[in-house]
Amino acid sequence: MGRPRSFDTDDAIEKAMQVFWTHGYEGASLPDLLDGMGLTRGSLYKAFTDKKTLFLKVLDHYEGKAVRAGVTLLTDAGIRDGADRIMAMFTNSYRTVTEGDRRGCLLCTAAAGPSMYDDEIAAAVSQGLGALRDGIDVALKASPKHAGLSEEDRGALADMLIAQYIGLRTMARARIDADTLRNAVRSVGVMLA
Q: HTH tetR-type domain location, by residue (predicted)?
């Protein structure tokens, strides 16, 4: 009979998320993961099988944490105008960069990386970004200026806004200058005006 696990799985996934978020999927080496998670190679493989399985668990964890927070903001009825909710999401993303966190969005990073060649990762990325896009659609329905749009036009605007969000978060990770990022956020305000 094997020894029981001597680590907390949720804590290990949180730590792995930080490693993947910083280095990306391809850039996160086994030594990076072992060091960041505080695990031995045997413990990591016994608990998570392989790097991809661990990454899928990390994406699920990220969705439950970061994506859920974004959707909560976008669907917050306490902010009456849905356009204000959308602007808050973009402004918060920009503020994160000005406070020194240039990791961007883990889902956006995965969208530009392993989801291009791995169907399971692509499905996880699509699910998370789809949840944010649906949150944007809810916010648009609560915007007096946009509530009267046809479902098709509102959907197109939601698609364009999620594309803008992916662009902003990817540019942040690419260390694009703060003025350009600020203008990207301002452009969302122009689109919603």
A: 6-66
